[in-house]
Amino acid sequence: MRRLLLQFCIMIMAAIFTTGFAPIRQEHDDIDCKPGDVIIGKTTKRQIVELCGLAPSTRIVGNYEILEYHDMSAKVGKAIGLGALGALAGGIPLERLAGNYKKEAIVFVDITSGIVRDYYYHNYDDNKGHDLSETTLLQADDMIEDGNVDEAIALLKQAISQNKNNHRAINTLAWLLAEMNIDSKAALTYAQMAVEIFPDSPYNNGTLGIAYMRNNDRENAKKHLEKALNLFALYFPNAEKAIEHDKAWLKFASGEYTTSER
């Protein structure tokens, strides 16, 4: 009887380890899911894993667990974010992966609650994002890379109208308006919106610092540029060009060199 019971237990354990307790897929290198139904502030980490499988790369930093999904089958030659622009303070914050893969998705999960606080999905093969707004943002990216700033601004405004909480589109628009000194007041308004939506983004805070400088507010400029550099050190220490860019603006805000030297 004991022998039969032992054999039965072994069979049960084997079945458990074979089938698992829940339909969670194993880690994989190719993205075959598009998290288009993710709701910021509601969707949980478990739901992300059940949808996309275990993330090939995870980092626990600051307030977040960052889940990184990317297509390892082939890298693409696209420059980081908005080309030279995206590598700086503004542009699409594609973080460490930044266009090096055909597909990628980044999810920021609150460590305490397990709730998704930010995410995006980009497919560079067909230039599509997880929703219409993100797709329009990627189209604006192409316009900027081609030097078509006016067209990019129009697309960014369209992306914002499609999703008022797309802080990447809001930040990119603010950055263009501020960095190119097109409309300093509008730049400040958009930059404040982006930081309000996702305050832990170093890109958003860097842009806000620049916007304050364009509006002759050195105190707030220094505050947000310093915060941006602290957030870069915490979340994205390898974003060298963006870090150097914000350091240069911080020196300018601190009066360490003049406008002509900037």
Automatic annotation (TrEMBL):
Signal peptide residue numbers: 1-22
Keyword Lipid biosynthesis assigned: no
Keyword Signal among UniProt keywords: yes
Alphabetical keyword list: Signal
UniProt cross-references to Gene3D superfamilies, sorted A to Z: Tetratricopeptide repeat domain
Record InterPro entries: TPR-like_helical_dom_sf, TPR_rpt
Protein name: Tetratricopeptide repeat protein
Origin species: Geobacter hydrogenophilus
